[in-house]
Design brief:
- InterPro entries: PAP2/HPO, PAP2/HPO_sf.
- Pfam families: PAP2.
- Keywords: Membrane, Transmembrane, Transmembrane helix.
- This is Phosphatase PAP2 family protein.
- It is built from 9 helices and 2 strands.
- By secondary structure, it is mainly α.
- The chain has one domain.
- The protein has a two-stranded antiparallel sheet with strand order 1-2.
- Strand 1 and strand 2 form a beta hairpin.
């Protein structure tokens, strides 16, 4: 009985810790929900502070004795044979939530095409960064398998949760924040299942959040949607002179 209580307390505190991370991240964007700020260096910095802190803090923690002792305590509490494949499926839940909300008519920030565009970009960039780091950093998992740092499941989950948050933070806050709870649980079970160290998860969360923040920060610059009534048009104008020829390209959006 005592061992079971310890197990549940450890799971609880890992989950709470990761949710505090995401709460601090989303709290910095509350001011943006009612007033559109001009694009500038200060706004870029605001979007980077928390995820950059997570990445730096997790990197410093990586390989330290505290991390190893923490992992030993977790496995001692849940049992060496404990395994629950929660993260293998839960990381996709924010995507399902977003499109289900669209189908039910919940108002979102963007059209479904823009949502899909931003989601695809977030996934591609997050995976590229994550797996590059995995290849560059020869850190072994707790189970002695390579490619531990950072956690791809966690970075993917937080990138998906970030897109869900950005789309529904103004119209359905509960839905917007719920994705981060799922992402936090995904990261927690990567540690509990002995597939990642706590630093792998923290850095993975930071990467997913950072990528999504930057994509939505720059989104107005790359706005294009062929499904909207307001037509985005490309105009090609050929130019011919005596000794020169060329092509002008203009885009209206």
């Amino acid at each position: 009985m005592r061992k079971n209580k310890r197990k549940y307390w450890l799971i609880y505190w890992i989950f709470i810790f990761l949710n505090l991370i995401t709460f601090s991240t989303t709290a910095q964007t509350v001011k943006d929900t009612t007033i559109a700020k001009p694009f500038g260096g200060k706004r870029v910095l605001q979007k980077m502070i928390v995820p950059a802190t997570l990445i730096l803090g997790g990197s410093i923690l990586s390989g330290k004795d505290f991390e190893k002792e923490f992992q030993t305590d977790v496995r001692g509490a849940v049992g060496e044979n404990y395994e629950f494949k929660f993260g293998d499926y839960a990381r996709y839940v924010p995507i399902v939530q977003m499109y289900t909300a669209d189908a039910l008519g919940v108002k979102s920030k963007n059209h479904w095409f823009d949502q899909t565009k931003n989601l695809a970009l977030a996934i591609v960039v997050t995976d590229f960064i994550t797996f590059r780091l995995k290849n560059w950093i020869p850190k072994k998992r707790p189970g002695q398998v390579t490619e531990s740092f950072p956690s791809a499941h966690t970075s993917f989950a937080f990138a998906n949760a970030g897109v869900l948050y950005q789309e529904f933070k103004d119209t359905s806050p509960f839905l917007a924040y719920s994705g981060f709870g799922i992402a936090a649980a995904t990261g927690a079970f990567r540690v509990i299942n002995n597939t990642h160290w706590i630093s792998d998860v923290i850095v993975g969360a930071g990467i997913g959040i950072l990528v999504t923040n930057l994509i939505y920060l720059f989104d107005p610059i790359i706005k294009w949607n062929p499904f909207l009534k307001k037509k985005n048009s490309f105009v090609f104008i050929p130019r011919f002179d005596q000794d020169q020829y060329g092509l002008y390209l203009t885009m209206k959006y």
